[in-house]
Design a protein that fits this description.
Blueprint (H helix, E strand, L loop, with lengths): L1 H15 L20 H9 L2 H10 L16 H15 L1
Helix pairs in contact: 2-3
Length: 89
């Protein structure tokens, strides 16, 4: 019986650790449940067509700040766009 209770406590505890409070500052999941979530997914996937669509057509603010650390997607897009520019020359 002690083993079952111990396993149950362990399982319930591990389920509670999946929230936003344990995410690091560079985790795209910080943008989940915000208006910038589709843009964050596109940036994470490096999908330039979807990034363009989200910014230009759907008017998602590229400088949207997530609440925990105040990070924006621009921090993740700049290195990606610089690499893309280098490859296009």
């Amino acid at each position: 019986m002690k083993i079952i209770i111990t396993l149950l406590v362990f399982i319930l505890n591990s389920c509670s650790l999946s929230g936003n409070q344990n995410l690091l500052g560079d985790d795209f999941r910080l943008f989940k449940n915000t208006t910038a979530w589709p843009l964050a997914v596109a940036v994470d996937n490096e999908d330039t067509a979807e990034i363009r669509k989200q910014i230009l057509c759907k008017k998602i603010p590229v400088d949207f700040k997530e609440k925990k650390f105040g990070q924006t997607l621009l921090l993740y897009m700049k290195p990606f766009l610089q690499t893309l520019r280098r490859l296009s020359y």
